[in-house]
């Protein structure tokens, strides 16, 4: 059973272990039971469940890349289309979720959209978990290097500042520092661009007043495009995936499309199309696969549960902890596959050893992500809400239309 082939058995087993771990945590932890607040009947419960599959899919993708690295010494995309696409398609769908949720809020609230609350909530959503992870990376690098400075303090400070902005320069000349976290923060640059450009897009497409405003906003969007991608240019074909979410936001406002999207036929079409994307394409960020993924996502956004697969309690919990799962899995893979074999007498390149470590990592990832969500992410989200309320008390005349931290 190799991660270099199109054999999906390992992926199925990994998902099964993750779902079982999530179910056990829900069974034996009253705290987690109370934290899982979204009922299966909520409007976007299917989207919440989808997150759980996507975040864990990226973990499987990077585990396959690690298998390749251990045998070739190079971090290359898996030769298997399935193991390549399970990560790429997951990221594309994550971007669609972002586009769908926030463009949908704009369509609903219009000029009453609370931009201040939006900005604060994004900061408190991204950074509370990211900062401890960044600290782990820095400590790991200097620990491996024997706590010696190879760059000047000013250079190290500059490198750390870049990491604070979700870039991944090598720290203190440690090669491929971003590899410690599977370079997952590249997607956060795209998220930040979308957040910052959202008010400009709103003024172009929703708050139109005159051609000068439109021209200035378009110029601002281009400037942001250059600034956010100051080290690694943002790719236009990747940004296209946000448009899939925007399209879905309009889709769910058409009752006839929503009604069709909830039919048995739509669910079958969604599953077939998803299998086609995962097995026939080498890329997700291209016109044809993005169109197909947009169709799948629109059906899910319509409320289709894909025959119950998206509303299992264990999957909804995996969706709740998806940011932790996404952000932490690379560091866990690095510890388990590259550092642990240095202190214990086994070889991670051996297929059986690798599979056992991968299975253990699948369970650990859900357990650790559950802890970091409850004790880092959730308090961070609540702190964001308190900050928004404090700011609102200072500006009581400002419209307070419902922009809670996500």
Description:
With 406 residues, the chain is an all-alpha fold. The protein has one domain. Helices cover 72% and strands 0% of the residues. It contains 15 helices and no strands. Helix 1 crosses helix 15 and helix 4 crosses helix 12. The radius of gyration is 21 Å and the shape is globular.
What's the rounded overall pLDDT mean? 92
Largest sheet: none
* Basic shape: globular
Low-confidence stretches: 398-405
N/C terminus separation: 39 Å
Residues in helix, %:
over 70%
Q: State the secondary-structure class.
A: mainly alpha
- Count of all domains: 1
Q: What letter string, H or E per element, gives the SSE order? A: HHHHHHHHHHHHHHH
User: What fraction of residues sit in β-strands?
Assistant: under 5%
Protein name: Peptidoglycan/LPS O-acetylase OafA/YrhL, contains acyltransferase and SGNH-hydrolase domains
GO biological process, one term: polysaccharide biosynthetic process
Organism: Pseudomonas deceptionensis
Transmembrane segments: 12-29, 50-70, 82-103, 124-144, 188-207, 214-230, 236-252, 264-281, 287-309, 321-340, 352-376
